[in-house]
Amino acid sequence: MDVSIDLNHPDIVFTNGDTIFGRVAIYCPNTTIIVSRISASLLSETTSIVTDTTGIMMNRKGQEKHNIVHETQTLLPRWERDENIRAESLKLGFGHHHFDFALKLPWFPQCLTCPPSSAVFNDGIRDFGPSELPPSMKDLVRGANVSYRIEVAVTIYRNLFKSTTRKASPHPSDNMELLSTVVTSMRAQITASFLPQYHLSSGSKRNVAMRLSVKKMHEGSYTLYLTSFQLLLFGYTDIRAGSVSTGQMSCWTLQSLSNLGLELIPEGDTQECDIGSALWHDKCIPEEAVPTFDACNLARRYEVEILVGLQCWGKENERGGRVSVVQLRVPVQIGSGIAPGRKMSDVKEGVPVAANICNIGALEQKPSTSALGDENEIPAPPTYDEAVNGMVRSGLA
């Protein structure tokens, strides 16, 4: 059996006193089901979370939850109008079955959690009368959530026992707009170009190699300025062992600059320009960022996030526009900086890898001077007969 909720107007934002119309859809797959009760409820909860910082040793977090709306409509059993009798149960065969409901939002909240003797129900403390229903909001204000939902309960007989199936449908799913939105007139696009295969660095020093350009997308005689720049590196490690998998994330701030005031596109100039690489060219990738790899049970991948703050300025003695932050996030790869084909004899012991690699390009261009019979060449190991004869001559055997 499958139970679902269908609203007649799912996209409408309801308010005080409105009636929500819908139906309960029950699908019976193959057998006959005996239903004893069907009910639909409109519920609303307000949750508040407050952290008490007055403690001496530790902070205490307090949480309260109140039910401000609780409207229930019983769809089955129902009274038959013609016969004036009450239908106790109903048999549902194969197919889809629908039961209509109508739930009305109250004009004012009626808290069912607080007892009647509490101060909430004392009208004497309310100078402005009862308040209206709060709007739906989730994570809009820290520590305050308001939710509305519709719940449906279907009770059936199964092997002489009752079984209840519940289905909830929160409405509305999105937050209501409490503040009017401001349409900005400035639009810009940033583009990041990397090395082939999206490598973030080149060479042994692991410096960031990137080309960043800005394109002005709006019309108008304004000068575009760069106010802030931030470059973040995110590393993800995927770990799998059998059927269990997990992941870990790390973050590094490669560059963070503010209050720059750098002119990018002058008034009446071209619509696109490059941002100078002096903002990030001397920044190195941290050693903790291991190279990108993908094995059977382990994988390491990276993403770069670029945040660019832009502002438009008009003529002299005019105020600047609002600062707009343009965000770009792109997957990249990190290499080890070790060039392939290097000779181990050219690597100095006790010297960091970066110092050993700095002259790899020059070494590859020079022809090899080693030859057979060179005194610096490591001799071949002795054969079995030579080793045994040497042991006999030395008296060890």
Could you give a quick summary of the protein structure above?
The protein has 397 residues and is mostly beta strands. It contains three helices and 22 strands. It has two domains: 2-170, Immunoglobulin-like (Sandwich), CATH 2.60.40.640; 188-332, Sandwich (Immunoglobulin-like).
Please tag this protein with its features.
2 domains; mainly beta; six-stranded antiparallel sheet; Immunoglobulin-like; 3 helices
**Unreliable parts:** 117-130, 175-183, 349-378
Tally of distinct domains: 2
Percent of residues in β-strands: over 45%
Radius of gyration: 36 Å
Q: Which structural category fits the helices and strands?
A: mainly beta
How many E-type strands? 22
Distance between the termini: 88 Å
Quaternary structure type: single chain
Largest sheet: 6 strands, antiparallel
CATH architecture of the largest domain: Sandwich
Q: Sketch the topology as an H/E string, one letter per element.
A: EEEEEEEEEEEEEEEEEEEEEEHHH
Kindly identify the CATH topology of the largest domain: Immunoglobulin-like
Tell me the helix content. Answer: under 10%
> Which CATH top level class of the largest domain fits?
Mainly Beta
Individual helix count? 3
